Each structure stands twice: as structure tokens, then as C-alpha cells.
UniProtKB/TrEMBL annotation:
<comment type="similarity">
    <text>Belongs to the peptidase U62 family.</text>
</comment>
<protein>
    <submittedName>
        <fullName>TldD/PmbA family protein</fullName>
    </submittedName>
</protein>
<dbReference type="InterPro" id="IPR036059">
    <property type="entry name" value="TldD/PmbA_sf"/>
</dbReference>
<dbReference type="InterPro" id="IPR035068">
    <property type="entry name" value="TldD/PmbA_N"/>
</dbReference>
<dbReference type="InterPro" id="IPR051463">
    <property type="entry name" value="Peptidase_U62_metallo"/>
</dbReference>
<dbReference type="InterPro" id="IPR045569">
    <property type="entry name" value="Metalloprtase-TldD/E_C"/>
</dbReference>
<dbReference type="Pfam" id="PF19289">
    <property type="entry name" value="PmbA_TldD_3rd"/>
</dbReference>
<feature type="domain" description="Metalloprotease TldD/E C-terminal">
    <location>
        <begin position="238"/>
        <end position="456"/>
    </location>
</feature>
């Protein structure tokens, strides 16, 4: 079913256009982003039930104007005919002051093409058509099923989060709106034997509604079994190994290696080594990597970004060669490049940065069973914990939950946990020798810019065989 647009934004559009007309008499560029996101989270475990706001919820507007030197912004969350004059006065009194200073950080005026376009997403089950009581009862039933499989399961957590995202972008030449739903469901099975406690998880997400909970329900037993098996997991003997990375780990590598590493606002600040390697070999020729709102259909797909740039499919690495970065509008202006539609804000009150959307490696031609058979001694790595990357020096660390031992081309059933993967980004990517013909995406997490500015992203790809250092 089609997702409905925000009535709040629809009702606000005429007065926003009037605001833009008034401000355009004083400023050479004016735009307004309007945001209305209804976000809810439901969680259940043995200890209780939680119903609350999701992370993404917000409602408000941000005005961007060219102040004569560069760009200034003003955010607010209420608009009406009665408030219009006071908003104009606030903008003029606060934003004009910057033009009084001789700033080296100057930007040219944005030259826009005329675009009028809208997008409405579709879901199978709209969460607003289900009561909170029905949602909680469904989660309780799944939790109880998880707890029923073994006395070793001390808790089973399940959480469902859904966000109805509506945005509009208005300027003198653009009239854009979009409305879509993203949802995710995560399950954690916690097992304990004596003083040893382990957990295993799985997540389901996408441009979907309540149907993600049905997807999760089908895998309860698998999650429970894996959490119990982890009670026997050992630590890895540190060293360099051939590994097969499952799609979520492949995605984590893509995200950390040449996701953050090619955010082009870091090019402007001279904080990214990737700027020096455009059109140079940085990976195996089996490696092609994409990012973009239009690159694949997942949680970070949209018609336009938070600066009114239409989403694209950016080929970052093509057959091992670094080709492009991802940019917000102002970084592209400064660098003289074409913006890629990667300008994203944590909220309407926050600055837009160059941010990842859907980041992934393309699938190849290999079969997973052949990849495993090719490993003499190594591991199949799955279930990402977290990752870190240094864009300036290209060091990377990825932490995974599970490593499955491979000896003489066979999975032995022995596990290691947790798994720390480290290395120099080009060394890891150049070591890729096999790429599977199957790929998956994972979009249940959030991405920070450094330690803040969290936004929704997805990442993924195929299984890959590479050589990495484990610890």
C-alpha cells in the first residue's frame, strides 16, 4: 500500500513559499527543508515492555540563505501567517551579521535547475494500521518462543522500530516532497552456562512496515541455537588469516574503508587520504563499490537529500580503481564537482554533512561453498559489532561477533568470539581474491560522523575472500 504524505507539511507549504518569496528580495539564494518524522519503538524482554519515541522523530524547518559571503541557516518548528514576520525579522537580524566580516570561507551562489517531483513509498503492512497492544502482543509471543527452547536462555530481547519519514524541499526553482516508511526488527538471544554469558542476534530492516516482524519470527530458533553454541567459543590465536566475510562484514568493511574515507567534506578539510588516490588502484580488480540513495532499495533510499539534491548511484571503486567520492552540496561547490545527493542532517536543527546512504560492494561470480573450500586454515566472519576507520591514514578496525573455523576447506563447527580485524585499507581490499554471486544488505544501525551526528545508513554486499589480521 502507498504511504501517505504529511498533512503538516502539506498545510505548511503555501506559507513556506511565501517566506521564500519575501526572503528572496534580500538574498540571492533561499531554500527551506521541512521535516515531519513520526518514529516509534517497541521492545520486549523478560524484564518488561517499552513503548517510546524512536531515534528519528522530529518536526520542523531549516532555512538556508546565501548571506553575501557563504551560507547561513536558521531553524524553527512552527510556521503560520502570524509568525511569518517574526521569522523574517529573526533571519535578517541574525544571519546578516556574518556578511559584515571578510571571510576566507566564501561560497558561490547555488545555481539550481527547475525540478518539481514527489515520491511516495509502499509497504505491505502500515504500522499505523496496527494498535500498540497488537504490536506488543506479537513481540511477547516471539519472546516467549525464544525462551521456551532451552533452560540456558536467560533472556530474549526483541525490538521493533518504525519511522514514517516525510520531507519537503522548496526554493525558487525546486518543489520536492517525499514520504516513506523504514522499519527494523532486532532479536537478541542471551545464553548462560555457569559464569559464561554469550549472545547472538539478527536484524531485519528495509523500506518496509510491520512485515519485518514476520521476517524475524521465522528465525527465532536459529538465533537461540547460535547463542548456545557461542558458549563454547574460544579466543583466536592472533595472526594473519584467509577469511570469508559474510555480507554484513563485507558491508562493514565497505562502510569503514571507502565510505567515511571518501566523504568529500573531508576532502575540503584535507583530512582524507582518499583525495590523493582518485583514479588510482586501491583494491583488487574484483572489487566494485557503490554508494547512493538510488544505488539500491534500502533504508537510506530517497528521492532527494536534505539539501534538495536528487539521490544518485555513485560508483566509488570500479574494478579496483578509486573513481569518486560522495558529497554534500556545499562540498561539491567548494571542490568544483557535481553533488552526489549525500547531504544528510541528523535533524532539521543540525548541519548537513557528506554522509553515506546505501554502501555496498557489487556481487561477483563465485559460489560460497567454493570460497570456503579454497581456505586451508581460516575463518568465516559474521555479525558485526562495530567499526572504526582513520580517513587520514587509512587504518581500519572491524569487530565481529563470530568467526567460524575453516580447516582444509571445511567448516569444523568450532567458533571464535569476539573477532577483531585490523589492517591498512588498501592492503585488505587488494587481498580480495573471490567474490560471491549472492549479496545482502543490512540497515538496522546508525552511522556517526566521528562521535556524533547520527543518521540512518545501510551497507552490505556479497561474501568476499580476503587476507586480514585477526586478534
Amino acid at each position: 500500500m502507498k504511504v501517505s504524505n504529511s498533512q503538516f507539511l502539506n498545510n505548511s507549504k503555501p506559507i513556506i513559499k511565501k517566506l521564500i518569496n519575501i526572503l528572496s528580495e534580500s538574498y540571492s539564494y533561499v531554500s527551506v527543508l521541512g521535516t515531519d518524522i513520526n518514529s516509534k519503538r517497541y521492545a520486549v524482554n523478560k524484564m518488561g515492555i517499552l513503548i517510546g519515541d524512536g531515534f528519528l522523530g522530529e518536526r520542523g524547518f531549516v532555512v538556508r540563505v546565501h548571506n553575501g559571503v557563504n551560507y547561513s541557516e536558521y531553524s524553527f518548528n512552527e510556521i503560520s501567517e502570524d509568525k511569518l514576520n517574526s521569522i523574517v525579522d529573526e533571519i535578517k537580524s541574525k544571519l546578516n551579521k556574518v556578511s559584515e566580516f571578510n571571510s576566507k570561507n566564501s561560497y558561490e551562489v547555488i545555481n539550481e535547475e527547475e525540478i518539481v517531483q514527489s515520491y511516495l513509498g509502499e509497504v505491505l503492512i502500515d504500522p499505523k494500521d496496527i494498535t500498540s497492544e497488537e504490536i506488543i502482543n506479537k513481540l511477547i509471543a516471539i519472546k516467549d518462543e525464544g525462551l521456551s527452547y532451552s533452560d540456558l536462555i536467560v533472556n530474549f530481547n526483541i525490538a521493533f522500530e518504525t519511522s514514517h519519514i516525510s520531507k519537503m524541499f522548496i526554493s525558487n526553482k525546486k518543489d520536492l516532497d517525499q514520504s516513506y516508511i523504514i522499519s527494523q526488527c532486532m532479536m537478541f538471544s542471551i545464553a548462560r552456562r555457569e559464569n559464561n554469558t554469550k549472545y547472538y542476534y539478527d536484524s531485519y530492516s528495509g523500506l518496509k512496515g510491520f512485515e519485518v516482524v514476520e521476517e524475524a519470527k521465522a528465525n527465532v530458533k536459529k538465533i537461540v541455537d547460535q547463542s548456545i553454541k557461542l558458549l563454547d567459543a574460544k579466543s583466536v590465536e592472533p595472526g594473519e588469516y584467509d577469511v570469508i566475510c559474510a555480507p554484513d562484514i563485507t558491508g562493514l568493511i565497505a562502510h569503514e574503508a571507502f565510505g567515511h574515507g571518501v566523504e568529500m567534506d573531508m576532502f575540503v578539510k584535507e583530512r582524507a587520504k582518499g583525495a590523493e588516490y582518485i583514479n588510482k588502484v586501491v583494491a583488487s580488480n574484483l572489487t566494485t563499490m557503490h554508494d547512493g540513495a538510488a544505488a539500491i532499495k534500502d533504508v537510506s533510499s530517497y528521492l532527494f537529500d536534505d539539501e534538495g539534491t536528487i539521490g544518485t548511484d555513485t560508483v566509488i571503486i570500479e574494478n579496483g580503481v578509486l573513481k569518486n567520492g560522495i558529497s554534500d552540496l556545499l562540498s561539491a561547490l567548494k571542490l568544483g564537482t557535481i553533488p552526489t545527493g549525500n547531504g544528510k542532517r541528523e535533524s532539521f536543527e543540525r548541519k548537513a554533512y557528506s554522509r553515506m546512504t546505501n554502501t555496498f560492494f557489487e556481487p561477483g561470480n563465485d559460489k560460497v561453498e567454493d570460497m570456503i573450500a579454497s581456505v586451508k586454515k581460516g575463518y568465516l566472519i559474521e555479525k558485526m559489532y562495530s567499526g572504526m576507520e582513520d580517513p587520514k591514514n587509512w587504518g581500519m578496525q572491524c569487530i565481529a561477533l563470530v568467526g567460524r573455523e575453516i580447516i582444509d576447506g571445511n567448516l569444523t563447527g568450532n567458533l571464535i568470539s569476539p573477532v577483531y580485524m585490523t589492517g591498512f585499507v588498501p592492503d585488505i581490499l587488494k587481498s580480495i581474491t573471490m567474490v560471491s554471486d549472492h549479496m545482502d544488505m543490512e540497515g538496522s544501525g546508525y552511522c556517526g560522523k566521528g562521535y556524533k551526528e547520527f543518521v540512518k545508513t545501510s551497507n552490505g554486499g556479497p561474501y568476499i575472500k580476503a587476507k586480514v589480521r585477526l586478534g
